[in-house]
């Protein structure tokens, strides 16, 4: 935990022309409590950060560094991870932990590493998985877009369909607790990602 | 994006729009012809004012029939639409309101309206398109919105409000004709100068009154819409349902994309500046507040309900 505290202190860092406030990511830790109380949505303990794959030694080294870092965290806490490549040639680092704070810290730390290695352009989104354990039908996601520094909801119901109603409920519930994307025409889905 | 991919109900219902325009054109023409004839016959200001007020009263009295005819709404019995009748009865029973007559319009365009002089003789009309795209709770919230219009006597409020502007309109007309006649026929020199000046003032004031009342009516109308939204939320206890219905009706629901971010990422979708929406001038002239604003208010209510 101390390790993550240290990362947290380093609150904001810079990506190209836009500043990213890692505080945005951490606003999730209070917002998820609201989600649980009001909408009965609990974190599944899974989250992922997506990177646009680049070929070359530098990028491979960075991924290696991330792996090493996460391996260390593995022994520090109950955090586990895996790396997947999707059909769109994006690299996803899936992080799992019982503590939401640890997931957020992990995602934030990976983002920091990517930035430090000069690959902030490749930073895509981070997605956090939630579930309503009362009617265990489908997964709910909060997507964090690094470029816009904003969150938005994504609730897929089938292969190409999403539940706009629940998405709006999520939006309304935590709108004021975190930087939220108010323009719903930017709520782009991330289909078929198995965390 | 192209119009051909839009669902049928989002396209303009030209038939319906034409009917509306036609009925209002006929109404307006009737007024003008009738009053011109009276003026031609040399009736004075007072008799014409009386005739005009009788016509306004008649319009008020027949308003529901005019609206029903112009929209093509047909009153429906319980046998024809049992579920719709049940739904309306549930709301009126819960809220201690008299049951309105129910009408259905055969149109793809999702819409609803209420008309009638008072709570006892009112009609709620919905289009078949509305029933198709909304689920039961959403339809209930839309009907509750219309019932609030009836309960608040909005038809009366707006008729009274427009009476003001109609009177101003007539004053303007009379001032204009009065000025023409007195000027053209050349009754005594000095007097006509004075009266022409007075007439210009009357015309100017009447015109100003008309313009202001026109804007005020629209402001009142927008305010009544918010009030009806609130009333609906109170009746159903589910503001979010009305918000959803509004978004479905306006097609805003379609805003939320279904195309994968990884597919659009190359297009830099995230950096496109959203197009400017609804100018203030447009807002000033419209009778309904923008859907976005109404949805926002409803969502605030939903949030405050906790």
What's the quick description here?
The complex is a heterodimer of chains A (about 200) and B (about 300). Chain A has about 200 residues and is an alpha+beta fold.
Question: Could you walk me through the main structural features you see in this protein, from its secondary elements to its overall organization?
Answer:
The complex is a heterodimer of chains A (195) and B (306). Chain A is of the alpha+beta class. Chain A has 6 helices and 10 strands; from the N terminus they run αββααβαββαβββββα. Chain A has a 6-stranded antiparallel sheet. The radius of gyration of chain A is 16 Å and the shape is globular. The two termini of chain A are 24 Å apart. Mean pLDDT of chain A is 84; it is low at 1-19. Chain B has one domain (3-305). Chain B has a 4-stranded mixed sheet with strand order 1-2-4-3, sandwiched between helices. Chain B is built from 11 helices and 4 strands. In chain B, helix 1 packs antiparallel against helix 2 and helix 8 packs antiparallel against helix 11. In chain B, strand 3 (112-115) and strand 4 (123-127) form a beta hairpin. Chain B has helices spanning 14-40, 45-71, 82-95, 128-133, 136-151, 154-185, 189-236, 239-250, 261-264, 280-285, 291-305; strands at 74-75, 101-105, 112-115, 123-127. Chains A and B meet through strand 10 and helix 6 of A and helix 8, helix 9 and helix 11 of B.
């Amino acid at each position: 935990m101390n390790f993550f505290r240290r990362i947290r202190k380093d609150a904001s860092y810079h990506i190209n022309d836009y500043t990213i406030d890692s505080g945005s990511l951490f606003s999730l830790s209070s917002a998820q409590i609201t989600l649980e109380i009001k909408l009965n949505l609990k974190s599944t303990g899974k989250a992922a950060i997506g990177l646009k794959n680049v070929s070359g030694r530098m990028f491979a080294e960075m991924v290696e560094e991330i792996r090493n870092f996460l391996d260390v965290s593995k022994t520090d806490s109950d955090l586990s991870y895996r790396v997947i490549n999707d059909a769109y040639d994006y690299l996803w680092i899936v992080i799992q932990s019982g503590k939401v704070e640890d997931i957020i810290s992990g995602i934030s730390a990976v983002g920091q590493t990517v930035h430090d290695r000069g690959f902030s352009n490749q930073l895509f989104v981070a997605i956090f998985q939630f579930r309503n354990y009362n009617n265990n039908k489908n997964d709910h996601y909060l997507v964090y877009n690094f470029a816009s520094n904003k969150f938005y909801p994504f609730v897929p119901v089938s292969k190409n369909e999403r539940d706009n109603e629940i998405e709006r409920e999520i939006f309304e519930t935590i709108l004021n607790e975190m930087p939220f994307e108010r323009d719903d025409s930017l709520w782009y889905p991330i289909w078929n990602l198995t965390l | 994006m192209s119009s051909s991919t839009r669902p049928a109900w989002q396209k303009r219902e030209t038939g319906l729009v034409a009917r509306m325009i036609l009925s209002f054109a006929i109404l307006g023409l009737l007024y003008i012809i009738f009053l011109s004839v009276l003026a031609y016959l040399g009736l004075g200001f007072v008799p014409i004012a009386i005739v005009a007020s009788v016509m306004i009263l008649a319009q008020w009295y027949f308003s529901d029939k005019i609206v029903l005819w112009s929209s093509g709404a047909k009153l429906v019995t319980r046998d024809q639409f049992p579920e719709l009748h049940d739904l309306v009865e549930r709301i009126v029973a819960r809220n201690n309101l008299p049951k309105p007559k129910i009408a259905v319009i055969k149109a793809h365009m999702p819409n609803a309206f209420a008309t009638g002089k008072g709570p006892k003789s009112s009609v709620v009309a919905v289009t078949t398109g509305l029933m198709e795209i909304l689920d039961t709770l959403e339809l209930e919230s839309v009907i509750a919105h219309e019932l609030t219009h009836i309960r608040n006597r909005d038809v009366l409020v707006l008729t009274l409000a427009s009476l003001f502007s109609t009177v101003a309109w007539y004053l303007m007309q009379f001032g204009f004709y009065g000025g023409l006649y007195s000027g053209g026929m050349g009754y005594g020199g000095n007097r006509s100068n004075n009266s022409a000046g007075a007439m210009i003032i009357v015309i100017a004031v009447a015109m100003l009154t008309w313009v202001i009342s026109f804007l005020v009516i629209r402001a009142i109308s927008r305010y009544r819409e918010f009030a009806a939204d609130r009333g609906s939320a109170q009746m159903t206890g589910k503001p979010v349902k009305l918000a959803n219905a509004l978004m479905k009706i306006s097609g805003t629901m379609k805003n939320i994309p279904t195309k994968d971010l990884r597919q659009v990422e190359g297009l830099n979708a995230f950096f496109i500046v959203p197009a400017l929406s609804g100018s203030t001038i447009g807002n000033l002239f419209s009778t309904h507040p923008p859907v976005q604003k109404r949805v926002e208010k409803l969502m605030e209510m939903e949030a405050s309900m906790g």
